[in-house]
Amino acid sequence: MIDAVLVGCGAMSKAWLDAARQIDGLAIVGLVDLDADRAKARAREYDLGGAVIGTSLDAVLEQTRPQAVFDVVVPAARRDVAFSAFAHHCHLLTEKPLADSPENARAIVEAARQAGRIHAVVQNRRYVANVRRIRRFLDSGAIGKPTSIHADFFVAPHFGGFREEMAHVLLLDMAIHTFDAARYMVNGEPAGVHCQEWEPANSWYRQGSSASAVFDLGGGKIFTYAGSWCAAGFRTSWEGSWRIVAERGSLIWDGHEGLKAEMVVPGRDGMFEKIQPIEVPALDPADRVDGHLGIIRDFMRAIETGTEPETRGADNIKSLAMVFGAIESAETGRRVMIAKEAQ
């Protein structure tokens, strides 16, 4: 049995608690929020009558002595939560993004290393079935090495609240899902980025609702991202819409179930090489999926076996470096190198 305290009982906590109650061997023994009434409401909603409720994470951890902390707070509070968790010898699973700044991200990862605790991030787009299928297909070499990765993300949600007032809203709040998926699918190592942000006339956000970026993912791989939080009409999937060009063919994914690939075959059809469809194999039974549920299970398995989870902070910081590199490029108007020490 693994006991966990969840801190941050806002809207996102529902996804965590929905997943947690499906997992045998996991007990939520404490709920922490600056608003005690909100924490109490979550406890009632999820029948957690035995959970300790509090506004101080340190106090609840002292009382409950759990093995793990689930961090669902706003990014600005993430460093304090992490340091508190590690001080109480807890493993830490945190909502994305890992931190609100490169400095805080590095500090959290280093604190986890020094504490000898497992630290992972809920980067749940990796746990989408077709993301797993694409990675395995590309790793097989069926269409050669990927060279160009293109992702479009066009969704127009009216969130209300803090998102509509925050700076760099698309890059900081959402783009990391797409960046991490791209890095994962082609096994990329971010090296540089050029990015532009803008606020179109149709936007209801304060700043940064639209962005375009070009990343160098190393090894001759270039990743282009085009996105908007305010593009009404022809909405893409929340996973985006993808085209991956490789040495001997291409793959396209609509972000839903539409996943197909074509490969070059001998011969020409006029000035074009001949092309034929190639099957993208089904999900491998060994692949871990299921979003928050899959990640929490992976995190628990890591605690029980002493292994590292796939979305460990020491790896996820590379995707976060893509976000902060893109923001710096948008602010300065120049290409930004993503140095190894920034990761």
Automatic annotation (TrEMBL):
Q: Where in the numbering of this chain does the Gfo/Idh/MocA-like oxidoreductase N-terminal domain appear?
A: 4-121
List residues of the GFO/IDH/MocA-like oxidoreductase domain.
131-251
Spell out the SUPFAM superfamilies in the cross-references.
Glyceraldehyde-3-phosphate dehydrogenase-like, C-terminal domain, NAD(P)-binding Rossmann-fold domains
Q: This protein's superkingdom?
A: Bacteria
Protein name in UniProt: Gfo/Idh/MocA family oxidoreductase
Q: Which InterPro entries match?
A: Gfo/Idh/MocA-like_OxRdtase_N, Gfo/Idh/MocA_oxidoreduct, GFO_IDH_MocA-like_dom, NAD(P)-bd_dom_sf
User: Which species does this protein come from?
Assistant: Mesorhizobium salmacidum
